[in-house]
Write a structure and sequence with these properties.
The complex is a heterodimer of chains A (about 300) and B (about 350). Chain A has about 300 residues and is mainly alpha-helical. Chain A has a single domain, classed as MetI-like (MetI-like fold, Orthogonal Bundle). In chain A, about 75% of the residues lie in helices and about 0% in strands. Chain A has 14 helices and no strands. Chain B has two domains: about 160 residues, 3-Layer(aba) Sandwich (D-Maltodextrin-Binding Protein, domain 2); about 140 residues, Periplasmic binding protein-like II (D-Maltodextrin-Binding Protein, domain 2, 3-Layer(aba) Sandwich). Helix content of chain B is about 40%, strand content about 15%. In chain B, strands 1, 2, 3, 4, 5, 6, 7, 8, 9, 10 and 11 form an eleven-stranded mixed β-sheet that branches. The chains are: A mainly alpha (about 300), B alpha/beta (about 350). At the A-B interface, helix 12 and helix 13 of A face helix 4, helix 5 and helix 13 of B.
Chain lengths: ~300, ~350
C-alpha cells in the first residue's frame, strides 16, 4: 500500500502538503526497498545508456582520418575543429533555429486542440485524445514520405494550386527548411498535445467563470487567467518538441533534400558516409551539451513561473 | 576477457579442435552458413534471385544470411564495429571503400586454393596484393526523362541548361555519384582533380541553384520516373533496370565527356566465422554462371573472362574493353579526398 501511495505523492504535493510530508517520511524508511526495486532498471540503464555514452565520449577524443582509420589516442582536435570553424557554428545555429521554430509552431497549432481536449467533459473525450495521438502509431519515416508526396513539385498542394490557376511555377515546399519545419510540426503535434494536457493541471473552469462574473471579457479571461495557467504545460510541450527537433535525423534528411544541414545530419554523414567516428562523437557530445544547457535554462524559467 | 579466451580455448581443446588447423577453425566448405553483407533494395533482390538462390540449390547445406546496407561506407562501418569479433564472412562493396578495409586489416587475402574461379577474373580486376577481386563493374550515367529528351542527352553540360533548372537531382558527396561528377567536371574544365578542383567548384556552383535535391528520395531513378525531376545522376546498371521497369519512361546514358567506373569487389572478412563455406560462396560468385546471371538481372558487367552475355545485355552493361571514355578516379586518392570534397560541396556548392 505504501509503495503504491508514495510515487503519486510528488504530483499532489501542492494540494495535500501534510499528506506529502507523511509520505516523504515513509519513503525515507523504505529507501532500501526502493533501491532494490530500482536495481534492475538501473542495471539496464547502465548497459543500454551509460556504457554507450561513455564509449561515445571516449571515441570523441580519438583521432579520425580521411580513410576511416581510427587512431586510439587522446586529442582535443575533434572539439577544437568544430568549435573554431564558422561552418559548424552555422550548422549549430541552424539546428537551434529549427528547434525554436518547430517548437513555437507546434505549440501554436497544438494548443487549441490540447485546450479543447483538456476542458472537454464529453463522454467521447478518451476517444478524442486517442484520435489526437493516433498518428504516433505510424512511423515518422512513413509520415515524412507522406509529406514528400504532399509537398513535392507535383504534389497535392502544387497540383491543386496549379489546377486552380493560382501559380505558374510550383512552390518550393520541399528540399528546404520550409518542408522540414512543416513535416516536423505535424510529426511532433501528438507529443505536444500530450505534454500540454498533462501540464494543464491548474486549469480550472471555476477560475474562468469567476473572472467572467467579475466583469472580465472573454479575451481578458483568456489572457489573464487561462493562458497563465496553461503556461507550464506550454513550456513543457515547447521543450519536448525543441529537444526532439534538434536531435531528429530522418525528417531533415528526407525533406531537407541535402540542403538542410543540421547537427544530426552532420553526425550521420560523418559516421556512415565519411567514417570519421571520433569527429561524429565529438559533434554528438556538443549536441548533448546543448541539450543540457537548454534544460537548465528551462528549469530556471519554470521555477520563475511557478514561484 | 582473459577468462572468456581461456574458456574458449578449453572448449576448443576438449572438442578436438585445439590444433588450430585452418580447416577446423573455418568449418566445412559444403555446409554451415555464410554471413554476407552487401547492398540493399533492388540490388539485394536481383542478387538473391540471380546468385544466392542458384547457389543454395547447388549447395543446399549452406545457408546464406544476407545483411543489407544502403552504402559501402555503412558496410565498412558495420565491419569496423565487429573487428574484434567478426560476425560477417563475405562483403561485396565499392572498391574505394574496400581499399580502406584492406588497409585496416579487415579483409583476408584470397587465392585460387579455395577459390579456383579467381583464375578466371581478368588480370586487371585482381588485387595486386591479393585481396578481394572485382566481382562486377558499373559506371556513373546521366539519368533522363524520355518524354523531355526523346534522344539521350550527349553532354553532361545539359545539367547546366537553364531550361531544366529546378528539375535536376544530384547526389552530393560523400555519394560516389557526386564525387564522380566532381572529377568529371574537373576534367571538363581542363584541370587535374588531383591537384585542384577550383574550376570545377566554380562550375558546380553555377549548377547548384538549378538542383532540386542533393539527396534524392526515394532515389535518383524514382524521382525521374515520377516526374519530380527530368535529369539526374545515376548508375548505369540500376538505370537500365528501372528503365525496363518504368516502360522506358526513364533512360540512362554515358555522356561524351566521359564517366567514372563504379567497381564492386568481393571480400573475405579476416577471422570470419565460416571461412571455408565463405570461400565456396566467393568461388560461386566468380563463376561464369553467377556472373552472367547477375549481368542479365541487373546489368552489371562481369569481371571474369568466361562469362558469355547475350547481345541485348552486352549492349547495356558498361564496356570494360576500353571503348568507353573513362575518367580515372584513383581509389587511393579518393579515399583521402572524399572528406575534403564532401566538405567543399557542403560549404561552397550546396545552396539552401
Amino acid at each position: 500500500m505504501t509503495l503504491l501511495q508514495t510515487p503519486v505523492a510528488p504530483e499532489k504535493r501542492s494540494q495535500a502538503r501534510d499528506e506529502g510530508k507523511l509520505e516523504k517520511a515513509t519513503a525515507r524508511r523504505n529507501r532500501r526497498t526502493y533501491l532494490a526495486l530500482l536495481l534492475p532498471g538501473l542495471l539496464g540503464l547502465l548497459v543500454s545508456f551509460v556504457f554507450p555514452l561513455a564509449y561515445m565520449v571516449r571515441m570523441s577524443f580519438n583521432q579520425g582520418s580521411p580513410d576511416g582509420v581510427i587512431v586510439e589516442t587522446f586529442t582535443l582536435d575533434t572539439y577544437i575543429q568544430p568549435l573554431t570553424d564558422p561552418y559548424y557554428w552555422r550548422v549549430t545555429l541552424d539546428t537551434f533555429q529549427m528547434g525554436v521554430t518547430v517548437g513555437i509552431l507546434c505549440v501554436l497549432v497544438s494548443y487549441p486542440v490540447a485546450l479543447f481536449l483538456a476542458r472537454s467533459t464529453s463522454k467521447w473525450r478518451g476517444l478524442l485524445i486517442a484520435i489526437a495521438i493516433a498518428p504516433l502509431l505510424t512511423s515518422a519515416v512513413v509520415r515524412t514520405y507522406g509529406w514528400m508526396v504532399i509537398l513535392g513539385t507535383n504534389g497535392l498542394i502544387n497540383s491543386s494550386l496549379d489546377g486552380l490557376g493560382l501559380i505558374d511555377t510550383p512552390l518550393k515546399l520541399t528540399n528546404n527548411m520550409t518542408g522540414v519545419a512543416i513535416g516536423l510540426v505535424e510529426i511532433f503535434m501528438p507529443y505536444a498535445i500530450l505534454a500540454m494536457i498533462s501540464g494543464f493541471g491548474r486549469l480550472s473552469p471555476q477560475l474562468e467563470e469567476a473572472a467572467g462574473s467579475l466583469g472580465a471579457s472573454k479575451f481578458k479571461v483568456f489572457t489573464r487567467v487561462t493562458l497563465p495557467l496553461c503556461l507550464p504545460g506550454l513550456l513543457t510541450a515547447f521543450l519536448l518538441v525543441f529537444v526532439l527537433s534538434i536531435s531528429t535525423f530522418i525528417t531533415p534528411r528526407l525533406l531537407g533534400g541535402g540542403s538542410v544541414q543540421v547537427l544530426a545530419t552532420e553526425i550521420y554523414d560523418q559516421t556512415t558516409g565519411l567514417l570519421n567516428w571520433p569527429f561524429a562523437a565529438a559533434l554528438s557530445v556538443i549536441l548533448l551539451v546543448l541539450f543540457g544547457l537548454i534544460i537548465a535554462v528551462y528549469q530556471r524559467l519554470t521555477k520563475k513561473i511557478g514561484g | 576477457m582473459a577468462a572468456m579466451a581461456a574458456l574458449s580455448s578449453a572448449v576448443l581443446v576438449l572438442s578436438g579442435c585445439g590444433g588450430g588447423s585452418e580447416a577446423a577453425s573455418s568449418g566445412s566448405a559444403t555446409s554451415g552458413e555464410v554471413n554476407l553483407i552487401a547492398y540493399s533494395g533492388v540490388w539485394q533482390d536481383q542478387y538473391t534471385a540471380a546468385v544466392i538462390e542458384p547457389f543454395k540449390a547447388k549447395y543446399p547445406d549452406i545457408k546464406i544470411n544476407y545483411a543489407s546496407k544502403r552504402s559501402s561506407a555503412e558496410m565498412l562501418s558495420a565491419l569496423q564495429g565487429q573487428k574484434n569479433n567478426p560476425a560477417t564472412d563475405v562483403a561485396i562493396m565499392d572498391n574505394s571503400v574496400s581499399t580502406t578495409g584492406n588497409k585496416q586489416g579487415l579483409f583476408e587475402k584470397i587465392d585460387t586454393d579455395g577459390v579456383p574461379n579467381l583464375a578466371n577474373v581478368q588480370e586487371k580486376f585482381r588485387d595486386k596484393e591479393g585481396y578481394g577481386p572485382v566481382a562486377m563493374l558499373d559506371a556513373v550515367g546521366l539519368v533522363y526523362d524520355t518524354a523531355t529528351f526523346p534522344e539521350a542527352p550527349k553532354s553532361w553540360k545539359v545539367l547546366w541548361d537553364p531550361a531544366y533548372a529546378g528539375k535536376i537531382n544530384v547526389n552530393a558527396p560523400p555519394s560516389l555519384l557526386g564525387l564522380s561528377l566532381t572529377a568529371i567536371t574537373s576534367k571538363m574544365e581542363g584541370e587535374d582533380y588531383a591537384q585542384s578542383i577550383d574550376s570545377a567548384v566554380e562550375r558546380l556552383k553555377e549548377m547548384a541553384p538549378g538542383v532540386q535535391t542533393f539527396a534524392p528520395n526515394p532515389d535518383e531513378y524514382q524521382n525521374v520516373i515520377t516526374g519530380q525531376t527530368v535529369l539526374g545522376l545515376g548508375q548505369n546498371a540500376r538505370g537500365q533496370f528501372y528503365s525496363d521497369q518504368s516502360n522506358k519512361k526513364m533512360g540512362v546514358t554515358f555522356p561524351e565527356e566521359g564517366t567514372v567506373y563504379q567497381i564492386n569487389t568481393i571480400n573475405l572478412v579476416k577471422d570470419a566465422p565460416h571461412t571455408a563455406a565463405a570461400k565456396t560462396f566467393v568461388d560461386y560468385a566468380l563463376s561464369a554462371e553467377a556472373q552472367t546471371a547477375f549481368a542479365k538481372a541487373l546489368f552489371y558487367a562481369p569481371s571474369v573472362t568466361n562469362a558469355e552475355l547475350p547481345a541485348d545485355v552486352k549492349d547495356r552493361v558498361v564496356p570494360t574493353d576500353g571503348s568507353l571514355n573513362i575518367v580515372p578516379l584513383d581509389v587511393e586518392f579518393l579515399s583521402s579526398a572524399r572528406d575534403k570534397w564532401t566538405d567543399t560541396w557542403k560549404r561552397q556548392i550546396i545552396t539552401k
